[in-house]
């Protein structure tokens, strides 16, 4: 992990727009001169997997240090950020965010804590990517919350359930911070002092939403959602990345624009790389609809769906199935935008819909007590 110093993100600067060519999976049979043999899986511009297991990830999106600012114009105040090691044995780290002041929180009280998992098909992405850094700085400022953005291990080097295990490790780290709330000051006192550890939310987009869902399900296996002194109050799933052998209508018919972040072949490639070897897309980590949802203990959920996303129907099917199983599910559909619009700004309405999403998340977090 590359350690970066704490810095203030000065809100009011223009949001950086990040775009890249539509990823396309490809199979290359020819040998390469790099000594790793032929390429067996590739999503152009994002990941290349060789026969000997070597993996290349081109720098599709730049990393940024903590003192780099990219937040929404007109947002109040500033945001402080810092990188920390979560688990030295695995190399998992996280980027912490908090508003410089508690303005906007009821009575200036401690802020809810959002544990966030980035997207990328379990195979690419980073908590240091500029697009996530900017989005989560906005989330901290506009939704008045503290954020822990987890940089979990990636497939295919670390296939599932490694990402779920790292999510649980992040929760354990957060629980440890909560137990230190009254101890002597240290380098993280600035962040802990802003955190209301009795109001914790799990959140993620795409594959990160899948991680948030499964971590919440694991935390609820004991029949309760308190990881004392933490209390899990809710889960926010943004365009959750799930799949299945049977195709939905949106997967079969949705035509994606050139700058779309997810196509059906790309989705299939991610699942081949992320699931345990030999698994089909009906594995329960991919297709939760084949599980007994009524047996899960889950807090209230907010599911954010994009109208032009190939995952649209699968996301809405999950909402219906969870409600039928007796779960509390709030559903928000964003028109005119597709997958990952809130971080890639790859649609005409991305900025407008992103602000609508942030407002909806703030309302969900504020109402869930």
Automatic annotation (TrEMBL):
GO molecular function, one term: hydrolase activity
A Pfam family it matches: Abhydrolase_3
Gene3D superfamilies per record: alpha/beta hydrolase
Domain Alpha/beta hydrolase fold-3: 114-342
PANTHER family for this protein: ARYLACETAMIDE DEACETYLASE, CARBOXYLESTERASE 17-RELATED
Name of protein: Alpha/beta hydrolase fold-3 domain-containing protein
Species in which this protein is naturally found: Digitaria exilis
Lineage of source species: Eukaryota, Viridiplantae, Streptophyta, Embryophyta, Tracheophyta
